[in-house]
Specification:
There is one protein chain. The protein has about 500 residues and is an all-alpha fold. It contains 24 helices and 4 strands. It has 2 domains: about 210 residues, no CATH class; about 250 residues, no CATH class. About 70% of the residues lie in helices and about 0% in strands. A two-stranded antiparallel ribbon has the order 1-2. A two-stranded antiparallel ribbon has the order 3-4. Strand 1 and strand 2 form a beta hairpin. Helix 17 runs antiparallel to helix 22, helix 18 runs antiparallel to helix 19 and helix 18 packs parallel to helix 20. The two termini are about 35 Å apart. The relative contact order is 0.16.
Length: about 500
């Protein structure tokens, strides 16, 4: 994910390694007390999902996160932590996701204008002719991996080519969770391996390592994992029954009837990808991508604009159609029901549910951090680690626990990185062991937690619930097992030079 992490206020310690300023001494809690809010939250969420199903993300899960935060706050009051201290930490957490919230809003705007301009329909149109169901899923992984390596951003990858690939795959009759799993697997591979990615820079910074040494060492686990993922998706692709897939001829005709399809429409996504690759701030790139969508709509889709404005091609009529696409909703009707499902966008308003979820998750995570629960959980895992394998396993478990409790990808790297740094060095292990494990278990698993910022984002942008894509996000859940396998057999565990 390519977001700014300035909110953590990084500074250099006496050992010339980066640590976050705000991570001061927290109260000492027992493991049982520290886990109590987590247990309550899991029970509440389980009850909620059992009753609401997929609709739980529409608001009720958000309230459960607040209730979990209230339980954590009661523990904080008992430990003499003031309301102001907890609120301050919540504010810090919310500050850390400001970029994510703004990106979500701009992604909603970009999706609306790229639909209206014909950019997404053009991607689907050409994709249906080039890609075949047998190798489509594997192609999704490769395409998303290349884009993500170039941009350093799994979020940008999902918001651009990811949306189009979902549309193409649905038109082919493939399960949407399967497509999303392939998109996410490829996007997070690229995110991990790109020197432009902030998490790829953050992990070695917390472990006291060097960026390119970290990337080379991480390739030892990451490349085999993505190869296994590709192989599995190829097998799944060959298992698909092409004759059951939707016939594409009628889809192509329906798209051409509604949109003017022109290869020049691909200039917009190319510009966005190049800008991100050139380290342009994501918000700037997404804004320019949105404005290009508006421009291309005015150039290429004038008949469509006339239809949507009820033949009112005045300045005000066109303005309303474009602003609705950006801010609220756009629905483009075709004579094909499947395309009608694809050609809908909620604009910026469509992202508000996800933003609401992120805010509530940050409240829970902020209070858990303020009362010292996160440190207590990590410290308990560290005490359990008696062998090298147990040390790696504790790191993985700590990253997973913080992704679940703090709901933030960065904290899942920062907190375990700070907690386990000394233990790795005392065992004579090179810092890249820690940085690789942080990425293999912190970065990639964040997208598997529905209320984590990454899980909420990907689910919202791709229009697929975490439950639907969880099993198919093979690269993401396989990565922690790969790093643990290497630790168990002692393969490629680099020692500190004496």
């Amino acid at each position: 994910m390519k977001l700014a992490f300035d909110a953590y206020a990084f500074t250099y310690s006496t050992q010339n390694r980066i640590i976050p300023k705000q991570m001061k001494q927290k109260p000492s809690l027992s493991l049982g007390i520290a886990l109590l809010p987590v247990v309550v939250l899991v029970l509440l969420l389980s009850l909620n999902v059992g009753i609401y199903g997929d609709d739980a993300l529409s608001g009720s899960n958000q309230f459960m996160l607040l209730l979990g935060g209230a339980v954590a706050a009661l523990i904080g009051f008992r430990c003499k932590i003031s309301y102001k201290e907890m609120l301050t930490q919540v504010a810090e957490n919310l500050k850390s996701v400001t970029g994510a919230i703004l990106i979500l809003l701009f992604v909603g705007a970009l999706a609306g204008t790229w639909l209206l301009s014909g950019i997404i329909p053009a991607m689907i149109y050409y994709g249906l002719q080039i890609l075949h169901p047998t190798y489509f899923l594997a192609a999704c992984i490769i395409i998303c991996a290349l884009i993500s390596v170039a941009t350093g951003s799994s979020w940008t990858t999902s918001a651009t080519v990811g949306i189009a690939l979902i549309g193409i795959g649905k038109a082919m009759g493939l399960p949407v969770g399967m497509i999303a799993g392939a998109v996410i697997s490829g996007a997070y591979f690229g995110d991990k391996m790109s020197p432009l990615s902030d998490t790829t820079n953050l992990a070695p910074a917390m472990a006291g390592g060097e960026l390119f040494t970290h990337i080379r060492y991480m390739a030892l686990t990451t490349v085999p994992t993505i190869c296994v993922t590709l192989l599995i998706f190829l097998v799944i692709g060959f298992a698909q029954q092409p004759e059951t897939a939707v016939q594409t001829d009628s889809l192509l005709v329906a798209i051409k009837e509604k949109f003017t399809i022109n290869p020049l429409l691909f200039l917009a996504p190319i510009v966005v990808v190049v800008m991100i690759a050139k380290k342009t701030p994501p918000l700037v790139a997404l804004l320019i991508g949105t404005l290009l969508g508006v421009l291309f709509a005015l150039i290429f889709q004038q008949p469509l604009l006339a239809t949507l404005s009820n033949q009112d091609m005045s300045w005000s009529g066109t303005y309303k159609v474009i602003m609705d696409a950006i801010t609220v909703a756009t629905t483009i009707e075709t004579r094909n029901p499947l395309l009608n499902d694809l050609f809908q966008s909620g604009g910026m308003a469509g992202m508000l549910g996800t933003i609401w979820l992120i805010i509530c998750a940050m409240v829970f995570g902020g209070i858990m951090d303020a009362i010292g629960a996160l440190e207590a959980i990590s410290a308990a895992l560290l005490r359990w680690a008696k062998s090298t394998f147990q040390l790696f396993a504790s790191t993985v478990a700590s990253c997973l626990a913080i992704n679940i409790t703090a709901s933030d990808q960065y904290l899942s790297i920062v907190v375990p990185g700070k907690m386990f740094d000394k233990a790795y060095r005392e065992r004579g292990l090179a810092p890249e062991n820690l940085s690789r494990t942080l990425e293999d278990s912190g970065t990639v698993t964040s997208v598997l937690v529905p209320w984590n910022t990454c899980g909420a984002y990907q689910s919202s942008v791709l229009g697929v619930s975490v439950a639907e894509y969880f099993v198919y996000a093979i690269f993401n859940w396989l990565s922690p097992f790969t790093t643990l396998l290497y630790a168990a057999i002692g393969y490629k565990i680099k020692q500190l030079k004496s």
